[in-house]
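Bit of a strange request maybe. I'm writing a small parser for structure token strings and I need a real example to test against, not something I typed by hand. Could someone generate the tokens for this chain?
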Amino acid sequence: MKQVLCMTFIMIVTLAFATEHEAFTLNSAIEYALRNSITLTSLKAKIQSSRLIIHERWRELLPYVTVQYTNQDNVAIREQDMRNQSLLCTMQYDIFTSRKSFIAYSISELESLLAIEEYNIEKNAIILKTKKAYFDLQKKKKAMDIYNLLLESLALQKQIITAQQRLGMATELELIQVDGKIAEAQYNSITAQNDYANALSDFANMLGIEPSKIAMADPLYNAVGYESLPSKERLIALALKQRNELKKSHYTVIKTQKEYELARYYYMPKIQIFASYGYTGDQFPMNKQTWNVGISVTSALFGNTVNASQSYGKKDNGNITASDNNASLQVYNTPEFLRNIVDTETAYTQATLTHEQLKRSIATDVSKAYDSLTESTKKVEIAQQRVLLLEKQAHIENERVRLGDITRYDVLKTLVELSQARLQLQSAITDVFIGIALLENAVGLSQESLCKGAP
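Reply from user aminoacidic:
Good idea to test on real output. This should exercise your parser:
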């Protein structure tokens, strides 16, 4: 598909603020929004917690060592007292877990990656929301300027009509007409000021700061040229690589697959070796050496748990040889194994289908945002042409009034239409900036990546 011009004359914000305060820029707004977001703070804590879980899962791959000291002192009536103490070091290590420990470790890593992607998704959503609110606030501020400019033009017309009335060249009706237009413009100006004040308060609440900290710059828009956008197909391909939602979905598919694998191979055995070494005795220091080594096998079958173990050791400085064999069966103690298989299989299937559906949804989002941006760009061009036309029309009608071809009321109507056209142009410009933000969000790229042409 042929490349479509990103904007033949996209409008860029030129900040002009004539006070001693520094203008409140879009980057400042985004910084405040991210810094004061409660949701992002919670997600940061979740990321930290997920990393600690990885450490916990890593610990399960290492042997468990226990050092235990025991002191028993039994005093009997009419019997011999019994005193004994021991110091034992015991070690247990899973030499075979059917990869369950490694799978659990990899799942914890995936959960950490999921937490990071959740943070990035929320961060992008906050940035997009802040951009929309910022551009809308600038539109409302520009609307006040447009109405003030209309009031100045109408006041000038009133001065002309008043002077002409003294000379008998204008009627009382023309003066009433201009007063009516001025009153209407004053009402619109007050409404625009209230809209801006309310929007400024909402914007400050969203950023988590006081409205007094926001010194919005006067938005003066100048036409500039931009390089062409990449084709829609390339932007879709980039979105399928960059979007955090798709990365999160991919990690979810892998995670549910591993969980399904764990549930499906629940019956695989776990083999553990254990050993102990220490001293016992009824005196101090303890003088009887003891040691023991063994192996145990644990498995599950149809909801039952089977355990078998064998150990061999020496006690009392080798004078006593101990050999133990043990087997146990816990009858139907894990009936949830079937439910776990069904649940994890369903979760894996759902995650796979969701991932494929998300790809199609992302492609649709990029396509819609792309088309909307090109439409908004064309809308700006049309609105700008209408403003230029009405400006020329107002100038021509002023000359025609002097020649007596038309009435002064026709000029008043044209000035009102001109102010409405300027408002429409301002709205179209805002739509372009919001369209850029939406396309950036849909593709998963920064604003600079789009404005500089093909990445």
